Structures are given as structure tokens and as C-alpha cells.
Amino acid sequence: MSLSDRVSARIGRDFGERAAEALDALELAECGNQDVERVHAALVLMADGSVDRLWQAVELSALDWRDVLMNGGLANGDWPATLNREFGPAG
Prior knowledge:
Radius of gyration: 12 Å
Helix content: 55-70%
Order of helices and strands: HHHHHH
Shape: globular
Oligomer: single chain
Distance between the termini: 18 Å
Largest sheet: none
């Protein structure tokens, strides 16, 4: 799994003691032909700190990763700015 530093840092903040479980969930996410960081970020945003919601989001990614981008707020053309605002600048 290719997890960016900024998404990894956000997982630590959002999921705390359950960060390892959150990482396990992200390993199963379907990313289609999209930027992996973008899909991972959308999943984290959808989960809003809940591992249970993250698992639901990962299940949704198996059906259609585009729904994950929509529900995570990263489907529009301004998604790079949203990603930077939510996760910090790319390192």
C-alpha cells in the first residue's frame, strides 16, 4: 500500500489507538485508476474518525470508488486544494 505521509499523519490524529485498524482497512480499499492518495484521503474524510465508518467507506470503494470521492468531498476539480486544506501540503 502506498500511503502518503500526510494521510498517515491524519490517520494518527483521527483514529488514535485504532490507527492500526484504520491502516488495515485502507489496504483493502479499491482505488480504480485514481490517485491512491486522493482515494485514501476521501475515505479518511468520510470516516470522520470512526473506524466503523471507515470500513463502510472501504466497502463502498469496492462497489464504486467514484462514490468515495463524491462522499469524501474530493470529486470536483478543486480536489487538490481541498486535499491540501484538510491534510496539509504534500511533502
